[in-house]
Every structure is written in C-alpha cells, then in structure tokens.
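hiii so my PI (J.) wants the whole complex modelled not just the main chain, which honestly fair. so below is everything: two entries, each one labled with what it is. i double checked the lines twice but i was tired so who knows lol
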Amino acid sequence: GDSVTQMEGPVTLSEEAFLTINCTYTATGYPSLFWYVQYPGEGLQLLLKATKADDKGSNKGFEATYRKETTSFHLEKGSVQVSDSAVYFCALSTGNTPLVFGKGTRLSVIA
Amino acid sequence: ETGVTQTPRHLVMGMTNKKSLKCEQHLGHNAMYWYKQSAKKPLELMFVYSLEERVENNSVPSRFSPECPNSSHLFLHLHTLQPEDSALYLCASSQRAASSYNEQFFGPGTRLTVL
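here's the output for the full assembly
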C-alpha cells in the first residue's frame, strides 16, 4: 500500500543554519504531496503542497519539490529560526485513501 | 468561529468514566476524521466519516465510539478507557474523504489523560 518514509529525528540546528528533512514515498498512481507542521501544543497545519511532478511548494521560506524520478519530496529552508521548532510531517494523498502520513521529524532550533 | 474547533482542550478522566470529545468544522467540508497522537508513536487514523457515513474504522477498540450527526459535527464517545489511551486526539476535516487533492484541516486537539 501507499507509504511515506521521512528521516528520523530529532534534528537540532543552530539559528540561521540550512535545513533539509528527507521524505520519500511509495504510491500507486500519481499522489499529491504535503508537508504539515505541528507547533507545540497545537494541531497540524498545512505548510506546503505539490500536486504533480516537478511542482515546487513553498511557504514561510520553506520549499519542497515533487521529484517523481526519485519519489521524493524533501523539505528545505535556507535559514531556520527558533520559531521553526516544531514537528514536521510529510504526507501523500491519492484518489483511493485519506492522507497517509510519515512518522514526523522533530526540529529544534537553538539560538 | 473559523476552521476546526475541538472541545474540551484538556480532559482528565478515570477508567470508569464516560466522556465525549466534540469537534466542529466551519469550512463546509464533507469528510471528518479522528486521529490519535501518542508520544513517540506515529499519527494513527481512527475513524473517517464521509457525508455522515463511517467509511473507515481502523481496528479501534469498542471503548471508542464515534458519532457524526451532520457534516459539521463529530463526536468521540469514551467509555471504560485504559491509561494507555492517554494521548492527543485530533479532529480534521476535508472536502472529500479520498481525493488526490485531499488537504486536511486540523483542530488543536484534546489532550486526554486517563488515570
């Protein structure tokens, strides 16, 4: 069945460092891909999405490109801030099932 | 109110209590979901409702009983819970239950502690 694999955390970075969180997927058909973020004490919020190959989703300085050839959707940010500390979830959606989530990656940014 | 709301935000209950979690969406969506989020475990999809009809039940114990009286409201009735049921319970909604463009909108969650 469909699945999402994302890198194990926690990831600890200094402020202004470059961030990459890897995400790869397995799916039948052509899924849409999402990154959700969960700040402490809150529910999940959509961060960005891409609905077809080579699309780039972007929001709040975060970017991810839908790579069909490598079945990947890695999350990147050029300069992280303390306020980016959160748990990040990669997810996919096809026409057959509700969203399939990865296990989440906890990011801690220290000043 | 906008988006997805959940009440209560925090709940402490004994193993013999009966309580209910409430979720309301103000987005005009047709699908609603319950998720369980435990520490150090993946997000678990519990139930899916589409147009008020349950379409998915992922082997959830019968001590959890969902109810969807209309497309805007979703309840999770709790009865004779165990301490391992302590978790954050998240409600979400989307336009449809299964779609290639299925963006889900989440509520803030109810933090449940079972003593």
